[in-house]
């Protein structure tokens, strides 16, 4: 079985050659396949793509945001992470409090109209500044609802109690490693209407064997060019963190995707990436003075010998 970065590149080729042309909620259009699995042996290196540069700090700060149980983008902006901005920005520009120029369909219009794109960037900067400096504004418009952090750390029961799934799964790995119930779910049907974006990575499960911790993610929907490389590295990092806390080595990350797709405006970027030669994977170094997953900060991670090809830019579909 093909593993590692080559498995990811093979998925890209599969979609280009055999993908079904489909419409989607963003109106962009995709080519997709249904039901695909990749495997990454974490002992061979940290699975951050080398055929294009991927920003590790964005991945790590987002994961820490999830782990903290946070759902407000202020923490992300404080760490120069803008990957969730558009969903919060959309809530603001569609509200009665917004009195600026029309931002309807800003995702598409900013790509097609340079004058609009300049105005959009201006409004986005205003929005970010308000999130960072105005507590009331950040509380109202920076929060994305019942997204990953809430489901991982504060899943609400019918009786109004909260379940800390992440803490519980760590306790389960420590105390009953052979259990088949090391599961965290982000898909809470009751809360879907209150999420900025229903969770794409819906459920993950851990597996302990031979002193190693492995993780499998089920992802209902995967933006193969922009999103999936982040998801691979994010869950690999989470596996490293939990293995460290539980005194285990890392095993495999298994990535199972339902709808694996490439957006129609990413096709040329994917073709460029596929022409590049794979390079050796980097290594991940953790600050071993920290033991608990919940104590780590961005400065506690070090990526060693990461030598990727240049980044390839592509628009995000909102």
TrEMBL record:
Q: Which residues form the signal peptide?
A: none
- Pfam families recorded: Thymidylat_synt
Please name the GO terms of the biological process aspect recorded for this protein, alphabetically: dTMP biosynthetic process; dTTP biosynthetic process; methylation
Q: Which reaction does it catalyse?
A: dUMP + (6R)-5,10-methylene-5,6,7,8-tetrahydrofolate = 7,8-dihydrofolate + dTMP
Record pathway: Pyrimidine metabolism; dTTP biosynthesis
Keyword Transferase present in the record's keywords: the answer is yes
- Gene3D superfamilies per the UniProt record, alphabetical: Thymidylate synthase/dCMP hydroxymethylase domain (3.30.572.10)
The GO terms describing molecular function are:
thymidylate synthase activity
The GO cellular component terms are:
cytosol
**Where does the record place it?**
Cytoplasm
Active site (record annotation): 200
Q: What Enzyme Commission number(s) appear in the record? A: 2.1.1.45
Keyword annotations of the record = Cytoplasm, Methyltransferase, Nucleotide biosynthesis, Transferase
| Positions that bind dUMP | 25, 180-181, 220-223, 231, 261-263
Q: Where is the Thymidylate synthase/dCMP hydroxymethylase domain?
A: 6-318
Q: What class of enzyme is it?
A: transferase
Q: What is its main location?
A: cytoplasm
This molecule's function is given as: Catalyzes the reductive methylation of 2'-deoxyuridine-5'-monophosphate (dUMP) to 2'-deoxythymidine-5'-monophosphate (dTMP) while utilizing 5,10-methylenetetrahydrofolate (mTHF) as the methyl donor and reductant in the reaction, yielding dihydrofolate (DHF) as a by-product. This enzymatic reaction provides an intracellular de novo source of dTMP, an essential precursor for DNA biosynthesis.
Tell me how this protein assembles: Homodimer.
To which protein family does this belong? Belongs to the thymidylate synthase family. Bacterial-type ThyA subfamily.
Q: Which NCBIfam families match?
A: PRK01827.1-2 (NF002496), thym_sym (TIGR03284)
This chain belongs to the protein called Thymidylate synthase
**Species for this entry:** Oceanobacillus indicireducens
Instruction: Please state the gene responsible for encoding this protein.
Output: thyA
């Amino acid at each position: 079985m093909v593993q590692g970065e080559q498995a990811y590149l093979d998925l890209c080729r599969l979609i280009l050659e055999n993908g079904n042309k489909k419409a989607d909620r963003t109106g962009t259009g995709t080519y997709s396949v249904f039901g695909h699995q990749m495997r990454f042996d974490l002992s061979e290196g940290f699975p951050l793509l080398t055929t294009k540069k991927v920003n590790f700090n964005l991945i790590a700060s987002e994961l820490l945001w999830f782990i903290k149980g946070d759902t407000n983008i202020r923490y992300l902006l404080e760490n120069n992470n803008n990957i969730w901005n558009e969903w919060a920005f959309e809530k603001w520009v569609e509200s009665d409090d917004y009195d600026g120029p029309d931002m309807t369909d800003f995702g598409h219009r900013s790509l097609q109209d340079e004058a609009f794109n300049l105005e959009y960037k201006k409004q986005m900067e205003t929005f970010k500044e308000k999130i960072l400096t105005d507590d009331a504004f950040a509380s109202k418009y920076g929060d994305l609802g019942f997204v990953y952090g809430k489901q991982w750390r504060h899943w609400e029961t019918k009786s109004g109690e909260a379940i800390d799934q992440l803490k519980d799964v760590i306790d389960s790995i420590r105390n009953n490693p052979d259990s088949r119930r090391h599961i965290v779910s982000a898909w809470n049907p009751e809360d879907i209407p209150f999420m900025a974006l229903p969770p794409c990575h819906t459920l993950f499960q851990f597996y302990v064997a031979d002193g190693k911790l492995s993780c499998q993610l089920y992802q209902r929907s995967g933006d193969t060019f922009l999103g999936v490389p982040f998801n691979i590295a994010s869950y690999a990092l989470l596996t490293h963190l939990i293995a460290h806390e539980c005194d285990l080595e890392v095993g495999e990350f298994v990535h199972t995707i339902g709808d694996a797709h490439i957006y129609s405006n990413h096709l040329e970027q994917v073709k460029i990436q596929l022409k590049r030669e794979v390079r050796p994977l980097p290594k991940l170094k953790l600050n071993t003075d920290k033991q608990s997953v919940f104590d780590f900060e961005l400065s506690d991670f070090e990526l060693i010998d990461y030598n990727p090809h240049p980044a390839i830019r592509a628009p995000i579909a909102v």
